[in-house]
Design brief:
Blueprint (H helix, E strand, L loop, with lengths): L11 H16 L4 E4 L12 H8 L5 H20 L3 E6 L2 E3 H5 L6 E5 L3 E3 L13 H9 L1 H10 L3 E2 H6 L5 E3 L4 H12 L4 H14 L4 H16 L2 H11 L2
Parallel strand pairs: 1-2, 2-4, 3-5, 4-7
Antiparallel strand pairs: 5-6
Helix pairs in contact: 1-3, 5-6, 9-10
Length: 237
């Protein structure tokens, strides 16, 4: 994202650009995506001035509905992307701008990252399936604390509760994002995508369903020439 004059606030246009970017990436069958932002802050969340203009103008009711739906549509396209999405957080990451990042597979935070979910304090509500995704990532108790109280947390606390996978110096963020992406694309591509798919799906499945799906994918992987090449190289070491 690069709307620095507004601290990367999310208006209708910005969200739709993000949706189209992820759709194009999915069409390209990208194995890995780096999602980052320019400027001092990753995002201050929804553009509240834009949102207030919508809700206070009866003639813009349809646009207001479409704006709210666009947050959920962004979630849908991110969750359906078969590649690994890595988010690089820095500065403020607030509200719906943070919630969309729960759809990412890995979140790496610069040490100046500040996260906050202030929606309930201003009469708003949560988006981007965060009422499901956040408890799944950090547990119900911690999720309720963040959502109910709206208190900010820093990068280290986010790491300690499992919300981000790594913390680094601000100046090192882009390098570490690229290094992580380069490590991922060295993996066998189809197996990596299967891993993402099953991890995302299996949290809501029973054990028998999970075991059956894992067996099917193991059999598919075992038939690939790429596995034979990689495994053969490994056993000959």
């Amino acid at each position: 994202m690069n709307n620095q004059d507004k601290n990367n606030a999310l208006d209708f246009l910005t969200i739709n650009k993000l949706i189209k970017a992820f759709e194009l990436s999915a069409q390209n069958d990208d194995v890995c995506v780096i999602y980052s932002a320019e400027g001092k802050n990753f995002t201050v969340g929804a553009d509240l001035k834009y949102g207030f203009n919508l809700v206070s103008n009866p003639d813009k009711l349809q646009e207001a509905i479409e704006f709210l739906e666009s947050f959920q549509d962004l979630t849908r396209v991110m969750l359906s992307h078969t590649g690994v999405i890595i988010a690089g957080l820095h500065g403020w990451v607030i509200g719906g701008g943070f919630e969309q990042l729960l759809c990412c597979d890995l979140r790496i935070a610069a040490d100046d990252t500040r996260i906050m979910m202030p929606e309930l304090g201003v009469g708003l509500f949560f988006s981007n399936a965060s009422t499901k995704l956040l408890p799944r990532i950090i547990g119900e108790g911690r999720a309720k604390q963040l959502m109910y109280l709206g208190e900010e947390i820093g990068a280290e606390e986010a790491f300690n509760i499992g919300l981000v996978s790594q913390v680094c110096k601000r100046e090192s963020l882009n390098r570490i994002l690229k290094r992580t992406a380069n490590s991922l694309i060295q993996k066998e591509h189809s197996a990596l995508k299967w891993a993402k798919k099953l991890i995302n799906e299996d949290q809501d499945d029973n054990f028998e369903s999970v075991l059956a799906k894992e067996l099917r994918v193991m059999m598919l992987a075992g038939q690939s020439e790429e596995l034979k090449r990689r495994l053969g190289k490994f056993v000959k070491q």
